[in-house]
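Now for a typical sample entry:
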Amino acid sequence: MSTESVNQPETIDEIRESDSVNMVADQAQDISASENYFNRELSQLAFNYRVLKQALDPTHPLLNRLIFCCIFSSNMDEFFEIRVAGLRQQMKYGREKIGQDGMMPEQVLQEISRVAHEYISEQYEILNNVLIPEMERENIHFVRRREWTEAQAEWVRNYFDEEILPVVSPIGLDPSHPFPRLVNKSLNFIVELDGKDAFGRETGMAIVPAPRSLPRLVRLPDEVCEGGENLVFLSSMIHAHADELFPGMEVKGCYQFRLTRNADLELEDDLEDLASALRGELLSRRFGDGVRLEVADNCPEELVQFLLREFGLTERDLYKVHGPVNLTRLMAVSGLVDRPDLTYSGFSPTIPRQIRNKESIFDAIRKGPILLLHPYENFSPVVDLLRQAAKDPQVLAIRQTLYRTGADSEIVEALMDAARRGKEVTAVIELRARFSEAENLELASRLQEAGVIVVYGVVGYKTHAKMILIVRREEGRLKRYVHLGTGNYHAGNARLYTDYSFMTCDESLGDDVNKLFQQLTGMGKALKIKKLFHAPFTLHRRLVELIDREAEHGENGHIIFKFNALTEPALMQALYRASRAGVKIDLIIRGICCLRPGIPGLSENIRVRSIIGRFLEHTRLYYFSNNGRTEVYCSSADGMERNLMNRVEVAFPVEDKDLVARLRSDLDTYLADNCQAWELQSDGQYLQVHPGEGEERFASQLVLLEKLTGNK
């Protein structure tokens, strides 16, 4: 593999001018025609649906199937908060953009509404007609109001009086009490009333926000139950005792509803103080424009229309549901019931022999690069690397990027420890990591108090690269140790997400990473990089060049990409060109894919599959057969315009022959999957792959779990 320095544009404008030339050349071949691409938002909805279908898969334990049903809700929340909100914003301000698929925002919103209504209706059918009955058979009960025994009703009354009543704030609607500003995604009730209150006011309606401090599910104590696990919804308790919130008045009806708001943050590029501006934006996120209204399906039509008017929404934005309006909260079930037999059994991630029981991780890295695949292999070596660096008197400096780390992070503790011991510690924190902004602001303050130099990256370009650089004095000279990864420095994610960690002391990579940190913390022209591809400078261009190089090998060429998403036009057009040249192309794309496979004369050599299973597939891998001179890169970047053009990202080569063989073996495992894989058809449908007649089941994640940990 070549390690020579790559000539590169020095500014963002030069890069975009270069990319536009490629686009014009492809238009002459009609590769860019809109019919060759799927809509981004509809592809994302299709991914959410694949997640929902896991709730019906009997190979998953029952409570994990319930969790998949909840994850679908969580994914849909973010979809409406960000993607639907973005389309509505385009229309609101007259900034409509035609997508590469040729659809206008209004068309996309219409189709989203149609598809989302179908999916959400199916979700509640799965919950009510499949999951709840199966849980009942396992003696796990959601006890409805009509089913409460006298003892249970008495316990609920006491709970209401002691836990709910003191913190709930009912709001009657009249000229002095206008409709309240309700927090994004909060559970609320609209109440029909009859009669006069203590002041003689006659009002027909009130709003009751459910206290956010209270759990949405409560386990009934064993002494009021006849056995099993018995759960009651907070909403049921409020329904049952709504009349106590309005003494002397008649409650004619009480109905759940929930408003989803625009939660995307908009920050100007010319900010003087990013942290201060972000704090201000976080306050407004809770009260952005409404984009979706969920309401109980038994709510009277006049109340539904009243809510729609209040929030400026239409029937298209209305979702009537038969059950709780926020199924995400059902994730609490697995923690409330003691049924380990209904969840995935735990396993012990392994530590490679290369570093197992080694006193110094630096000694191990000097003997050869280390590659870990989480969660099958432990994340602890990454933490140990920083812990040892913090305590090692030979270590002079540590630099690290932080995107998401978690509230109680051992990584952060190690950085603070290093700073307190007098080492030069620099943390590049991405404050705008979506939905982790507040946590990252607090993290920045903690690190600064410990003496860490905190930098917020580059305004306008999220720092999404995963890098650690450790400078150590050895035998009178400075040596650099590097960690590069495909995922965040988050121990919790490392147990749920599949990601690669790579540790090395390769001099060229160490020099490259050092230069990248210089670019992030200082100012100046883009520095010459030897081995790494980095966005927004060289990554996009080099990927296109490598695809085009593979096209020169024709039918001898083979490309395998593993992404979370593929939406970038020039990248897809390069893949179309390679397919036309006869290159075999395998795309393992978990989520969004706008490329259309299987089009004769264009993409018949492209296969697209999505792996959905116990773990969230998160590794990003680029494989080029290169006529027998294989090149493999791991990366923090997906095949999306935002990653390749508007973020700081890194793709790093893996050159060790044994590690290259291992990565190819991992890819082959995913490509051989015949039960957790879904294949994208040319019409946009995803079809789940099933074992053929007489063929054994081959689930890639289970195969990797057994191979790397010995667990089944």
In short: The chain has a mean pLDDT of 90.
